[in-house]
């Protein structure tokens, strides 16, 4: 989707966000990053075996795991879990955006659905698409946010950001408490313990994953790491290179809640959701793994660092790619999820400066992958 690059709000917002993100890097992360990079490459080589181990470990923790090869498979799984008319709350997830989960639940399952990440809620109520992978609503002006929020909440409030956030907080509290289903993504999964790790700053993911009766995690198979320690390190790398280290929260969910406080008898659930589901999504990832160039993209931790250093993204914002996958990583991930032919038109916008490759914590030679995708235009 192209945006007018003379749109001053968009350009100023991008500059402001990129400056904030540029300043958040810690040198001692380098060692951790090397470990994560090596382990992620190894996991992609042996992904099938890690998927089996993860399913076994998660099942032992009373988590119901579903494998979904395509978007339609994800939809069928959700139809079985989510009853028509349910109230669902979502926390920010690129995979949910990739699969258009909100629209599916609203239009096909007839649910009431609310995004709970403030940026995503802003996009929902203004009917916009994300313009950055970690700061999705950076192009939306405060005036537009206030106008849309007043319509939804029917409240009067000033333009002070603190007051706007208070209104959103009040609005969403009611949704969390009444929600039947909470849907999150995951930043990493641990094969040895079946754990799900979610990085966040707002505190919404912990409410979405703990208050509703059912918690559904929808995430890509490539998020699996061998151990809970590797999964944790992945989260540290992700938030460091995203410029938000330390993130306010790293949630670790290793099964249903339980208690043994009454005569040491185990009772589950205790106070968390009654059921926890994980939908492991393929949607092109296995196909990408069979392509020796494109498979590099699967090690991406989605930190957004490559966007910060990309002159094309800085000029055209979300016009460089197709939301949610925008910027250099977005070109690669559009190819993974929608095919190389489809992504080639975005690859053609690349200037070939190589800043993305130089700054990627996972050492992905993004410039080479994009050049490879662009070749599809000439075939
Ligand atoms: S390609 Fe590299 S820099 Fe870009 S989001 Fe992925 S891990 Fe981060």
* Low-pLDDT segments, ≥5 res: 1-6
Question: Which small compounds were modeled alongside the protein?
Answer: iron/sulfur cluster
**Total individual domains:** 2
The CATH homologous superfamily of the largest domain is termed NagB/RpiA/CoA transferase-like
Mean pLDDT, all residues: 92
Q: Provide the β-strand percentage band.
A: 15-25%
Number of helices: 18
Strand order of the largest sheet: 1-12-7-4-2-3
Radius of gyration: 20 Å
Total E-strand runs? 14
Q: What CATH architecture of the largest domain do you see? A: 3-Layer(aba) Sandwich
N- and C-termini, Cα separation: 24 Å
Question: What is the 3D form?
Answer: globular
Helix content: 40-55%
Structure description:
The protein is an alpha/beta fold and 379 residues long. It has 2 domains: 8-24 and 292-378, Alpha-helical ferredoxin (Fumarate Reductase Iron-sulfur Protein, Chain B, domain 2); 29-285, 3-Layer(aba) Sandwich (Rossmann fold). The protein contains 18 helices and 14 strands. It has helices at 8-22, 29-45, 47-60, 71-81, 94-98, 101-107, 118-126, 142-153, 161-178, 204-210, 228-241, 285-289, 305-308, 311-316, 327-338, 340-347, 355-359, 366-374, and strands at residues 63-68, 87-90, 112-115, 181-184, 188-190, 195-200, 214-220, 224-225, 249-253, 259-262, 265-267, 275-281, 321-322, 325-326. The strands form 4 sheets. It has a 6-stranded parallel β-sheet, with helices on both faces. Strands 8-5-6-9 form a 4-stranded mixed β-sheet, sandwiched between helices. The longest helix is centred in the middle third of the chain and has 18 residues, at 161-178. It starts with 7 loop residues before the first helix and ends in a 5-residue tail after the last helix. Residues 1-6 have low confidence and may be disordered. The structure holds iron/sulfur cluster (SF4). Iron/sulfur cluster is lined by residues 241, 300-306, 328-329, 360-362, 364, 366.
